[in-house]
Structures are given as structure tokens and as C-alpha cells.
Design a protein that fits this description.
The protein is α+β, with helices and mostly antiparallel strands and 249 residues long. It is built from four helices and 15 strands.
Length: 249
């Protein structure tokens, strides 16, 4: 069931989204060669707790950390570890969820570690642009797959692989709600977008092909061809006259 949020609920989710954005701004400054992903996780959890929220991900289906830290060929759900030390030229996707006053906020961004290759710069730029192409379609009266088609059509021209096994999603009192929002598909399908709906749009794009595999920990998801992958996500509220991005400052 798709839930329609009241103004009061969206006001709370706006606060949750702002905290996600603030946490990203804070962590972005800590990303440099030599830091472990475990240290980033510890800093994120402390930051979230200090601001009166709790990490959405910790304990979710037994996930062991506050954030996801996905380095290079890791697509999503990279588990922070003291053994994963960032080095010059890496890229890292950080996914942050917060639970605040009974509602979740969720947002991901992929960052360079020091100086990265031109190919990875392009991957990050195109994936980010595809997110905003999808967001443009998140308006009253459109259908969910209008978002999906916009992302796919934008990415297709660059020959990148679009991950199909993971999608965007509704969000609210639960971290994952209906509708699910794929990053591929034909337009004009799925639920009609209505004011009060809150969704996360999150393209996961590989420099190589779309094939992925999940490692033995049942979380860490990597590209099969070991190509690098990027992940960008915003939480959106559908409005009468368009949309509002809730996870930006």
C-alpha cells in the first residue's frame, strides 16, 4: 500500500532529510586517503545520535553498521570495516539513513578519494545527472515508470550498465515502502504519483555491464566484471505543483 503523508509528516521528513544532508556534508570532509570505512561509520553514527536521531540501517535485517560504504566495484551495501582503507583514486558511495521522530530519511552520494581517473569522474557526473533526470519526472499525475524511463534513456547513451536488482522506493514510517522505483523501464506504467507521496530515487550505475553478485556476507554487492559503480539518491516529496527534494540543504 502506498501511503500519502500529511503536511505534518512531510515537515518531519524534511527535518530527517536535512539531517541526512548534514551528515553527508560532515562525512565528505573526512574522506581522504588513509581513513578506514569503519572510522567513517563511527563518525556518522556519532553525528546522527548527537542530532537526536538513530541510524535507520543499523540492525535493519541484521545489517551491522550505521551507514553503507561501497568502494569502487562495490555497488551497494558495503559494510564498513577497519580493513578497508581508502586510497588515492578510489571512489566511495556513502548511503545514510536516519530515523527521526518516527520517520526515515535516506540519501546516498558517491565521492572521489583524492584525484580520480577521468573515466570515474565521468561515471560520477553522469550518474548524478541521471538522478536529476529522474527527479524531473517526479511530479503530480506522472507514473512511477516515467521516472524509470527518464533515467534509463539518459544512461543508455553512455553505454553504462544499469543495476536492475535494486531500486528506489517509497519511504516514511518504514524505510522501504511501496512504490518501488526501478531505474529502467517503459514510461506510463506503475502507480500514479500524487501529492503527499514520498519516494527515494536512486540510480546505481556501473562503468561496465549491469551484472552484479552478492558476496558471502549477504550484503556486499559487487559488479561481476569488477568495473567501478556509482550510486546517488535523493528523497523526494510529490507536491501539487511539482516536487521537493528533502535530502538537500
Amino acid at each position: 500500500m502506498i501511503t500519502i503523508k500529511s503536511k505534518r509528516e512531510i515537515d518531519i521528513m524534511r527535518e530527517a532529510g536535512k539531517l541526512v544532508a548534514l551528515a553527508h556534508e560532515y562525512l565528505k570532509k573526512q574522506i581522504k586517503p588513509g581513513i578506514s570505512t569503519k572510522r567513517l561509520d563511527q563518525m556518522a553514527e556519532k553525528f546522527i545520535l548527537k542530532h537526536g536521531a538513530t541510524p535507520s540501517f543499523k540492525g535493519y535485517n541484521d545489517y551491522p553498521a550505521a551507514i553503507c560504504t561501497s568502494v569502487n566495484e562495490v555497488v551497494v551495501h558495503g559494510i564498513p570495516s577497519k580493513d578497508v582503507i581508502l586510497k588515492e583514486g578510489d571512489i566511495i558511495a556513502i548511503d545514510i539513513g536516519v530515523y527521526y521522530k518516527g520517520y526515515h530519511g535516506d540519501g546516498a552520494w558517491t565521492y572521489p578519494v583524492g584525484k580520480i581517473s577521468d573515466a570515474d569522474k565521468k561515471l560520477l557526473q553522469i550518474t548524478k545527472e541521471s538522478l536529476y533526470e529522474g527527479i524531473k519526472q517526479a511530479v503530480n499525475g506522472n507514473r512511477v515508470s516515467d521516472i524509470s524511463a527518464a533515467i534509463e534513456n539518459f544512461i543508455k547513451q553512455y553505454g553504462y550498465g544499469i543495476v536492475e536488482e535494486f531500486t528506489g522506493h517509497g519511504i516514511g514510517q518504514n524505510l522501504h515502502e511501496q512504490p518501488f522505483v526501478p531505474n529502467f523501464g517503459k514510461p506510463g506504467r506503475g502507480a500514479i504519483l500524487k501529492p503527499g507521496m514520498t519516494i527515494c530515487i536512486e540510480p546505481m550505475i556501473n562503468r561496465g555491464n549491469k551484472q552484479i553478485e552478492i558476496l558471502a556476507d549477504n550484503w556486499t554487492t559487487v559488479t561481476k566484471d569488477k568495473s567501478n559503480s556509482a550510486h546517488f539518491e535523493h528523497m523526494i516529496a510529490i507536491k501539487e505543483d511539482g516536487y521537493e527534494i528533502l535530502t538537500e540543504l
